[in-house]
Amino acid sequence: MNGRDRYLFSELPGVLQVQLAGLGPLLFGGVIGFLLDESATGYWILTALSLPLGLAGGLEHRELREAAIRGLVTGGCFG
Fold first, then answer.
1. Whole-angstrom distance between the N-terminal and C-terminal Cα of the chain?
2. Tell me: the pLDDT tens digits for 56-75?
3. Among 1, 57, 59, 79, which has the highest number of CB atoms less than 10 A from its own CB?
4. CB atoms within 10 A of CB 25
């Protein structure tokens, strides 16, 4: 680690970056999409949970541009 108590996204291995920015949002979006037909309450709860999780992901970057790019990628996968 680099002396801080958290990792920056750019310091993580590439495979983990793909999982965090691509696979995770893709699966989470799929679950929320499934719940849209099954349970309105479950859909709204998980949708509300996704907002702070997405914002927390942006805190793993030094620069606003890096966070914005990750937001575009994860939002596209989530959607």
1. 33
2. 888 889 899 999 999 999 99
3. 57
4. 21
